[in-house]
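Dear colleague,

Thank you for sharing your sequence with our group. We've completed the structure prediction you requested, and as agreed, I am returning the results in plain text so they can be pasted directly into your records. Please verify that the sequence below matches your submission; if there's any discrepancy, let me know and we will rerun it promptly.
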Amino acid sequence: MEEVMIIKIKGEEVPVTLLDKTEKNSNHKNTKKMSMNAVNPVNGSIVEEYRQHTVEQILDIIDKSHASWKMWKDSSFKERAVLLRRAAEILRSRKEKYADLMTKEMGKLTKDGKAEIEKCAWVCDYYAENGEKFLSREDIKTDASSSYVTYNPLGVVLAVMPWNFPFWQVFRFLAPALMAGNGAVLKHASNVTGCSLAIEEINKDAGFPNDIFRSLIIDSSQVKMVIENPLIKAVTLTGSTEAGRSAASIAGQNLKKIVLELGGSDAYVVLKDADVKKAAETCVNSRLINAGQSCIAAKRFIVEQDIYGEFVEEVREILESKSIGSPNDDDTDIGPMARKDLRDEIHEQVQESIKKGANCLLGGVIPDREGAYYPPTLLTDVKPGMPAYEEEIFGPVASVIKANSEEDAIHIANESFFGLGAAIFTSNHEKGEKIAAEELEAGFCAVNDFVRSDPRLPFGGIKESGYGRELSSIGIKEFVNIKTVYVK
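Please find the predicted structure tokens below.
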């Protein structure tokens, strides 16, 4: 059963749903402070223990964020831009510190962590430079003496974010949200709570108003309560399809806007006229991003039968050359996965695929070493009914699927439940562009390259990969009131 608390907002009594007692880990009293640990995936040591916020603290944070937003919404674009640029400067000056934090909390290669921080600084600078232009008044000629569109902030937005890119996933939402005049509260993944608090620290040190951005140290069962709070005006979530369905249902019941960036099983289609070596290198490099723990990593290599054997051998050679080791070592290609349970989950998917007929040409065995490591794994002859064909495998596992023809390859790519990213490899650029633009069913389609997020380009998916867009001029308009003004 659900528990309900009556709170007062603007003098009115409002019922707020607390925890569903049937949910896992929700059988504690709401006034009790529970703890959550950040565990180093390299050696299993506890990085830090954090105390969860009580219900009273959660409500207080939301209330303060709303009060801060009421002042922040009247700030000018120039004022907001100055603070975003300061945030970018702080990010760059603390790059080593924050990269080390990511390494400790979720096992990211330190060199990749530094690159992630640089990208966060980039998105801050990008919206500081372009936000006012994106949200400027648009005059439209009608029968009125004056008619135009304005873009006004909505209020405090709840962000529910994952652990795999613990700074970037937040800043790609937060930079445009703040530039648009919104406030935000963040429910980050529990294993990267330190990163969540570090982002709060960055905003404070940059000079943003107190409470305009706050971290909520809560578990998943408390997200419903936050979405239902009348002071939360919208939601953005990056995570699994299951989490997206749950959050979208709650947001829908409360008539609140939500943007979802969910799972992906990105298809990389390799046609028979492609440069096989370059295609294999691109596919492998994409597959191994963040130890394979990326929604937009290449996950299904769909290859025309004429070059299938050659492509498989190229992929095998490249995978065999990749080194597994300490995430602090610049020579390491693949570090640990974020948690052992996640490692064990993809191992089960691999083993189930093998049982159903897939050939494991490389890897597929949990290493006899400390930490949440999993080797680069190559599965061939992957067919329908196998986890490697049907599901997202969130780790360093390459699934190679044989296609009878170009048409068959595109059909296989599109029959997935997912639609986040896709790529096409061919020496015929005109044909590749046509397939990417008109035939592949995904939110981002690349030709002879890998899928990536870029502040200048809209990012998001279709089908079970979610809806809505982040980044670019489109992303900043997701959480504003697009208001028509008509003056006679």
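Summary note from our side: The first strand starts at residue 2 and ends at 9.

Kind regards,
the structure core
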